[in-house]
Amino acid sequence: GRRDRTICAITATGSAAAVGSGLGGGAGGAVTLTATDGDPTIILSGDIDTSGGAGDGAGAQGAGGTVLLNNDVIVVADRLINTGASVGDITLSGAVAGSGGARDLNLQAGSGTVTLGVGGATTDIGVFTAAGALVDIDGAVTASQIELTGGIDVSAVALTVTGDTGTPGHGQLVLTSNSITLAGGATLEGTGAGTQEVVFRGATDASTILVGDDGVQGSDLNLTEAGHLDLVQGSVETIVIGHAGTQSGSVTLDDSANDGVLTLANTGLTIEAGAADVVQTAAGALDINDPAGGGFIINGAGSTTTLTANIDTDSGAGGEHHRAAV
Questions:
Q1: What's the pTM?
Q2: From CA 16, how far away is CA 185, in angstroms rounded?
Q3: Residue 322 above 60 pLDDT?
Q4: For 257, left (φ over 0), alpha (ψ -120 to 50), or beta?
């Protein structure tokens, strides 16, 4: 027979330290859920919170409790699993699916690790959000929007967004990190009608970003052609670099360790410069083959743009665009 486990809200938070004690908060409780027999499934019909308690004065927040879901998970309505701002891992071992329509799933592990197992999350998922010191994705994700924050490690699977960026919660695949590893054939994809985009941005507005391989890789976030840009596929129209409106760390285009030309085979390129300088070195030429017409755009606000190499766009729906507000 089938023995599913339906889970309502679980709160296993740590206690706050006594006022005036100067002590750390109490640890949150660990939550491990395992359904048994037949074709077991965990039905998540409530949020899970295992945050540590607040410290007093110089006392630290308590550790969050680990959350481990050992089976396939059905998400009923939009759900949050939160282990707080301190350590506390979240692991989903089975496949994750929404129920009754697209459901948002928000995994917040603070300074802990979020792990999505090989079952992935590909059915009826709305906005999929995961944040932690490390976000380890071992299963495919298909969602209206995907937002990953922290050290990002995607292994041999596709992350796919659907819908149109003109609709809130759709069409964007956002990776916010100073360390983005896409290994073993991992891809970043879009599908369906409308416009999709992949956003690479550093851990903070001040993170410096290198696009290309200069042989040094000395920026906070280093994006290479083979390891990042070439892995954007499907119907994604544009690759976006930087934090829109707030980027302050410089963005450099430099491919001197390779052939000196950054080639985008299927997308346009937008650099969200904010107040940051954008520097294109002599070995940072752009060759953009962009059938969807995203073109080349720089959005700046008081920044300096230095272009010292060729920019070649070939688009069926648009051409070269360089926009800088100063």
A1: 0.94
A2: 45
A3: no
A4: alpha
